[in-house]
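Appendix B, record 7
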Amino acid sequence: MTGRASVFSDDRVIKILTEQFIPVADNCTFTQIQRDAEGEFFRKMAEQGHYSGRTKPTGTRQGLYACTSEGELLASINTTRVEHVLSMLNKALKKWNEMNPTADVPASYEKDRNFNRSFPEGALILRETMRDIPRKDKSSDEVQIWKHNFDHLWIRKEEAQALIPDNPKAGMEYEAPKELVRRIAQYHLVDQVRGEAPPWHDKHIQKAGLTLRVESVNENALKIRLEGHALLEADPTGQTNPYSGFKIDMKRGMDATIKGVIRYNRKTNAFEQFDMVAAASRWGATTYNFRQNDLGPAPIGFAFELIPSEPRNQTPPKFLLGTYFRNGN
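Structure tokens (predicted):
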């Protein structure tokens, strides 16, 4: 998140990337272990770069890479400093111009079935924004918080339709599909504001529920209010951050109150609004979410907003693989 805020908002970086490069963003957590042409390409290219051969303290290949379509590295770096990124990009351009190569289009390939991140037909996309909420510290001074991060929540077509009753009447109440509630709690009420954090597991869910109430209805439109609560808690893992030496020796948790609104067009059978917020208290830390000096309890917020389900918005949710969808699709 720091890199996105400090590097890719810089006008000089935007200009050189849009005019001289073909930008691609990917999650190397998956790519570096995929058994397909994409994974092989990334491993070949990354092993020429800044983490070449490294296995300790971790084996990650995070960073920024510039390469040819054949996988020949031009330059790479892992930093959040604008000037260093610009230097790397200019170095890559210089090498490219000296090579004077042709840019071939890679052939199609069969994807690793264990890493299927395709968008479900007819699904809804909710953009998730998570951030620390300003609070008072021990000296009673207000702590101004700017850290934030993003994700996407995918709601499959049949799950979305289950949120709309067949014969709605004002005042009627019903529960959201359990699997959707589980997905929101387990994979989207996760503290990733300042860094990486793993999802919750089933055993961590102490409570999770979402009640819907029809507020108004006519032949054209339907308005529904959502209210819910989720409580999640996990025991300490005992893991140690290999960079800071911080040990995870306390429980982590999330206690969230959820509210939202849905507006549904009954003529077109389309969702026109799906806004949801979760105001929560979080505590504890994980190996890489950099909370060692801010263990809480402290306030955190999650906001979800319906966005068009078009290709440019179909970046997969961070935790899409595994049991994000129970059937694995």
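Remarks on this record: Helices lie at 2-6, 11-20, 28-31, 37-46, 82-99, 157-161, 178-188. Residues 82-99 form the longest helix (18 residues).
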